[in-house]
Specification:
By secondary structure, the chain is mainly α. It is built from 23 helices and two strands. Strands 1-2 form a two-stranded antiparallel ribbon. The longest helix is centred in the first third of the chain and has 40 residues. The radius of gyration is 25 Å and the shape is globular. The two termini are 20 Å apart.
Length: 656
Amino acid sequence: MAYTDEETGRPRGAHFAQPGEAPARQASVVEGPAPRSPRPDETAVFLRAATWRTEQPAPRFDPAATDAFDETNVFDEIAPEPYAPVDTGQLPSVGDRAPAPAGATSSSVEEDDLTSSDYEQAGRSAGMMTVLILVSRLTGFVRTWAMGAALGLSLLSSSYQIAYNLPSMLYELVIGGMLITAFLPVYLEVRRERGVEASNDYVGNLLGILLVVLGIASIAATIGAPAVIWTQSFMSADTGQMDTAVYLFRFFAIEILFFGLGSVFSGVLNAHRDYFWSNFAPVLNNLVVIASFAAFYVMDEILHVPAFYSVTTLAVGTTLGVFIQMACQIPALAKHGVHPRIHVDFHDPNLRKTLALGIPTLAATICAFVTASVQNAAALSVQPETGASVVAYSRLWYTLPYALFAVPITTALYTELARDAARHDDDAVRTGVARGIAQMLFILIPFALYLIVFSEPLNMVYCVGKFDLEGVALVSEYLCWLAPALPIYGVCVLLQKSCSALMDMKPYAFSTVLGALALVGVCMVGGVTLGGGMPVIAFATSAFYVVAIVITLAWMRKRLHGLQLGTMARGLFFGIVFGGLGAAAGWGTLQLLQMVLGPMVIETAGGLVAAPIPKTVAYIAVAGLVAMAVTFIPGVVLKLPEAGMFTSILRRFSRR
């Protein structure tokens, strides 16, 4: 985290207490023996916040007076069973629990205390996950490169992208959004309070229900494939151009079920601090799909077999990759004593808790489906056949900086925000939100500028096989207009975590609905009706996040009795200034390399061709390192709190 720097001035909240020093508490909390620290992940903190929200009312917060969007809070109806009474007057730690009820069984496997803290293990797990994420991103890049070589920027590429993305979208729409939000808290509560047998029963019931619900959804999607594909291409003049997408989707539809089962398996393993398979599974998926693209290329370009067989090979291989991603996690469950008996019980009270916790996310999930559908349809309308491919290729680079830099910030900050929210320390929450937003802007604004400066070189990496320089130009233009949304995307996700920490997701859900309306309006009116084309469709993403952020911040200002706008403005200022200097330095370095070592686009007798990929990658690496050094080293030297992530990295390397 950025705010662990010893030399950074910190308020006395739970976020910023000095090492070895207890965070400041509000006067309403009676001092007593310090409770054990909660385990350092967001699930346990979420559980504790949910439990103590009713037992320890906030001394200053009056929902009726300050919650503009809160009429009935769904979380009030699902508080877990109470813990054993604690007479210290403090909020007890996650480890302070009631004795296991009669009938609860203990596991015969190695005991894994899901309530105790283990910061050393958390650090090792984070390091392992970072490595696996990097491996996953690397294989994901190779996968995209193989797709570019095999499909290029074509109608087939657009058909594949649309059909490939729909199963995950439909899974989240049917139940995935609620499941991802609610499964872990409920599972940990059941296992902690009722024992291993009850938790296995809960998992078995959930798996049985998913088999029924998502199985029916998969069959319905397969039968209604033309209607499903129409949602992504309803503005296209030629309704027959998506026939290949329909064919592919009939294979991919079963992935709706695979995604649901896989998410439960991953959730269980993560609950037991077993992060390997849930993070390595996507690598296996990528490898299988890379092999499928290679097989398609050989069959299509070398053997010249009929297109039916090569496309079918690609469809089967892609579906097999998702199946392996789900199935490879099953053997690891037994190690943790998880032996679920699959059954269906719609009256299970734990199922009610799961649904109640996840209901507020349904609006956001619907909005995500609608906005993706409108952007794909608008892109195919203004740029027939290839529009959807342009959107997909651009988003691969757009999401990379977020995954590498923003996810660690939001994940770590969430735990601290939830802890302070559970203690009803609004001052600390307010400071944490402000500094988190400042850090997000300081880091992601420069990377948005880098995406603009390096848009063409980045997409030239895909310039092989059927992906030519014309495709590079189209994707690069879209990426330039999409890039400004990167920092506000990060801020929006951070605010989502903040609302979750405050145990009220309805304001964020309300803001995403209005944001979705803004995106649809910009796409339909500006992009299609007024002829703005692909640039306006890309810029519509920024409109979505701006509206969502403004509304959520307005609610949060009431909820937290103010916002530290000056802190946010400082992150914005330094992000623009240092990011601009870094982007300029990177652009200058790129031009110098081309002058000295040769251009990235070479003119030949047959026309313009891209330089060899290793040369382009080397140019990007050198110029990118220069850009980052110019941007972030001054922040470290000036000891800016927003640069704390990079300060921590440099200190870690300096100790070796």
